[in-house]
Amino acid sequence: MVLDQSIDMVRVNARTTDAFDIFNIRHYAGSNPYLPTAAAAFDFALVKENPPRSLDVYLEVIGDRYPHLLDETYDSYAHLFARTVAEVSKLEMDLHLTQWSVKVDEARAKVAVQSLHGRTSRAIVYCVWDWFEAITRDRRFWIEDQIEVLQRFFRDSVYGGPTVYALLKTAYELDIPTFYLWDERLMQYGYGRKQVRGIATTFDHDSHIDSDFTTGKDDCKEFLHTLGFPIPKGSIVYTVGEALAAAKQIGYPVAVKPVVGHKGIGVTADVKDADDLELAFDRAIEAVPDDQPIRIIVEQSIAGKDYRLLCVNGRFVAATERRPASVVGDDEATISELIDRENRTAARVDTPTSPLGKIQCDEAMERYLDEQGLTMASVLEKDRIVYLRKVANLSAGGLSIDATRQIHPDNIILAQDIAQHFRLTCLGIDVISLDLTESWKDGSFGIIEINAAPGINMHLKPAIGESVDVPAHILKTFFETGKAARIPTISFNHVSVAELQEIVDHILLQHPHWVIGAVCHDGVFVNRSEKSLHPDYNTNVQNLLRNPRLDLLIAEYREEVLDRDGMFYYGSNVVVLDHPTETEMMLARDIFDDSTVVIWQKDTVSVNQNGLIEQYKLSENEPFSRVYLKEIATIL
């Protein structure tokens, strides 16, 4: 039945003027009765007292914002509402949220839309609801303003960093199971003994000693010098007097930066005289972390372009040129107005997937403008390009240009030689070069610093040039395929503690050194050892999959858990169903091509394996376990 007319029910969340009612909103962290993904699910109904306008009216307004929705057909208001929520959920930055479903009964429709962050998804549902109500009353709804608010919600979430989201999306595309460990503030990729944990481009496989070493720019410079690589001449100083003396000895121009730092904070390049040096020294001191001593590097300033070379697992994968933020004059607008105009372009929406961040205005920028004889109020002549900073800091609005295919082979070898000295998954090498197509041995070339946790969005989404799929390079370092990230999983709809222990013993007879995690409504076990049972069922499942020694998982998922919380994971190698309900049949829905499904209904057992179905009846005293233990043996 299609829900296309008002129903006689008590209003739940709707206001007195609303035509629609949304209620029972919940967020499923994983596979659930409505979708095989994490989802926001809610009930949708029409309010009897306030009939809506024609469905075509809503589609026309929404289609003005999303024209491709006009090419689709909708059976009801619920279907259009679900499709709109799914589209808004992408937040106009191509988030990988595309799945949705509508299940209709006589009283209401159950809508589910693929989700990632519960708070953001809930806000999206309410935003679309407000939009529908505005259409009902023929009022203007500023959806573009709401999108900006929703983008900030997502940006502030644990998934909202550009590097974190890029890895998360790639893991989804490669079918690598991924989830966030809230207590540890880490992402986990893969299950059990197959897992890798980390945040951004730092992983538990990395050497923390090597990672810490890269933060000390002075020691790194000495190390690179011993390898025979080009580094700028410089000294570590502690006072402004020592800085002035060092600059005099090295010769202007110089660069000034804190020994410990990141993201170009506190760095001043091309310092030309003593007055500039004193200001640069103060900026470097301000950037020193509170728990670190005052140590400042004064070094030769090398002429050339700023490049980031990226290595993954010791191999070169990408190079990006970084240019400082700039504006182009038009004979009319001030620099301040040009910056504001540039910040409102689509490329600078400053989301996890945008190629450019917003241009940041601060004292350093105004000081550099002053060096050029300009202020924020200056009007630039037509086509004049003015750079706003000396340092090409992308987080302050700088421009990224892909240079991967331009790099000279000698420079690739240099990057790899450096990276292979560190037990780090990712290493960023910052260099200055007049021309990256020329060998470092022949021209002006200097290594500025190395970074143990480099960002990857500049390579994946450069402002100019081709994308390099760095997230895939990183994840394929750990997992050749999505299957390689998983351990065998056996799912039941009903299983007792005694049956769990029988299954564990059966498996340990064949694999005595395995670590098996098992969970049911009444207990949690690692092999035969009983563990604490958490009141939240999926927390028990997560804790088992978090165990880095786990070889196999056995889990029970009853209807009440599936309805309330959904499943923590997607996909089972063996599914065993004992007289399942319609909801519990979702366990058989979420399987792999080579999975085995065993279903017992009344006195008939069916076994579905590799597309072949075998059916037979159990004899009077034959236990069901005899059937599924035989099938479990096939995956071991």
Work out the radius of gyration.
Answer: 30 Å
Q: What name is given to the CATH topology of the largest domain?
A: D-amino Acid Aminotransferase, Chain A, domain 1
Strand content: 15-25%
CATH domain class of the largest domain: Alpha Beta
What structural category arises from helix and sheet content? alpha+beta
What is the helix fraction of residues, given as a range? 25-40%
How many helices? The count is 19
* Corresponding CATH architecture of the largest domain: 2-Layer Sandwich
Low-confidence stretches: 4-8
How many beta strands in the DSSP annotation? 28
Principal-axis shape equals globular
What is the CATH H-level superfamily of the largest domain? ATP-grasp fold, B domain
| Widest sheet: strand ordering | 23-22-21-24-20-25-26-27-28
What's the N-to-C terminus distance?
A: 45 Å
The biggest sheet, with number of strands, parallel, antiparallel or mixed sense and barrel status, is: 9 strands, mixed
What is the assembly state of the chains in this entry? Answer: single chain
Structurally, the number of domains stands at 5
Mean pLDDT: 92
